[in-house]
Specification:
Length: 451
């Protein structure tokens, strides 16, 4: 019986046979109900293997029942106990950021698995697996105002990987960087400072490519003495330029008085003069990205200035040029998705959809809807963490559809925008649209009741 069930579980897991999973589950349940308390008719690991196979098939009820049957008797202290805890963590994984209590419940089982696996070097791989699993179900919380709920648990995951000296330094560095952001989000500046110092040293020794990321966080959130950071950054001209860019960004975000145009010109001249041609492009891109994120009125194009002061931006030639750029962007997004490289390129290209929103402000019927729809769908398909950008896209699409009296589609986009709108920007800017959407919903409900 044991070997028969094992074959069925293997077929369900490896060959994706749904019928094999159902048959294995029925046999396991029957054996557990009929077996003597002191005698196991089947090996206990089969319950965990069947639960893991059920997860692959999306049958969470079967998975839950298998894990319950596994714990009906005292489980053996081996890797399957640890894997059972991981199954319980996945069963309790949060589906949205609106339920942090669910995250705590899932983390409870995850930490049980980690603490068990840490005791035996043979099970160290399960500590790594648990860290990956943790990152997957914490994804809904990886955005401003929600990272704080991860701080305590992520700290324990990072410490566990450090305790076993996991050799995937890149992965550990990414988790440490995320931990810095979690403490910043929670307002614990002292903890964030300590973690950032350790992370800076860790990346400098093991993952040099992420060194500037940590330095940027330190400067931006003022987790380091700026004179010390400036001194350390002078080790190379490129690093020093990066520091100056981040320093400027910090001043802009803090609304401190600074001549942005003059400072940018200084940085630009230093880049052209002192950086090798191979590194010039990446440093210049960093300049553009950093200042764009800070919404500099000089760099981003004075988006907050009155429309009459920007008439030249809406001349016929400029609008036509924007439309050409939008069409090219549409082609590039389609190409990236078709090539299966959406995770690498789509996010970058979607950051350039700003011409679309500018054009819709003037003429809603311009060819913006299609590229915006493509970009929004591409980001949704990869579950992008560019939440604010996605919110803005759906807000613009709602406006486009509303202008065309396609209120049903507008409701769909506005609903998606509001679901991702943690800052309240969409609610503040679309009160009139919301009223129209509600009216459309009432009309639709009335038509349905008549029919």
């Amino acid at each position: 019986m044991d070997s028969n069930i094992r074959k069925l579980v293997h077929a369900a897991s490896q060959d994706n046979e749904q019928s094999a999973l159902s048959e294995a589950y029925i046999k396991l349940k029957k054996e557990r109900q009929s077996s003597d308390d002191n005698i196991d008719a089947v090996s206990s690991d089969l319950f965990v293997l069947c639960a893991e196979a059920a997860l692959k098939h999306g049958q969470l009820d079967v998975m839950d029942d298998c894990i319950k049957m596994f714990f009906l008797k005292t489980p053996p202290s081996n890797q399957f106990l640890c894997r059972a805890y991981l199954c319980q963590a996945q069963l309790n994984a949060p589906t949205s950021s609106k339920n942090p209590e669910q995250l705590d419940k899932a983390v409870e089982y995850l930490l049980k698995a980690i603490n068990f696996a840490k005791k035996n070097p043979r099970y160290y791989f399960l500590v790594y697996n648990a860290s990956v699993l943790y990152w997957q179900f914490c994804r809904p919380f990886l955005k401003p105002n929600y990272r704080q709920y991860m701080a305590k648990s992520l700290h324990q995951v990072v410490k566990a990987l450090d305790d076993i000296d996991d050799k995937d330094y890149g992965w550990r560095a990414q988790l440490m960087i995320a931990l810095i952001e979690c403490h910043v989000d929670a307002g614990r500046k002292e903890d964030a400072t300590q973690i950032s110092i350790a992370t800076l040293a860790f990346t400098k020794s093991n993952v040099p490519s992420l060194y500037t990321t940590v330095l940027g966080l330190q400067v931006r959130h003022r987790l380091i003495d700026l004179s010390k950071a400036s001194k350390e950054a002078r080790a190379s001209n490129e690093l020093y330029m990066f520091y100056k860019i981040q320093r400027l960004r910090t001043l802009i975000e803090a609304d401190e008085k600074v001549d942005i145009e003059q400072e940018l010109n200084k940085i630009y001249k230093s880049i052209v003069k002192g950086v090798d041609a191979t590194d010039r492009a990446s440093t210049a891109m960093s300049t553009s990205t950093s200042t764009s994120k800070a919404s500099s009125p000089y760099v981003v194009g004075s988006n907050d200035s009155p429309l009459e002061k920007r008439k030249k931006n809406y001349s016929k030639s400029v609008v036509e040029r924007r439309i050409q750029a939008i069409r090219k962007l549409e082609q590039y997004i389609m190409t990236a998705v078709r090539m299966g490289k959406s995770k690498c390129h789509t996010g970058r290209m979607c950051n350039n959809v700003e011409p679309c929103s500018t054009s819709t402000a003037v003429k809603p019927k311009t060819p913006c809807a299609k590229p915006l729809t493509l970009a929004a769908q591409a980001l949704e398909d990869i579950d992008s963490l560019l939440v604010l950008l996605r919110c803005q896209m759906h807000t613009e699409l709602a406006k486009c559809e509303e202008a065309e009296d396609q209120l049903e589609y507008a409701v769909t986009h506005l609903t998606k925008a509001l679901e991702m709108d943690d800052s309240g920007a969409a609610r503040a800017s679309d009160d009139s649209s919301t009223v129209r959407m509600k009216r459309a919903s009432l009309v639709k409900a009335g038509e349905a009741s008549v029919t």
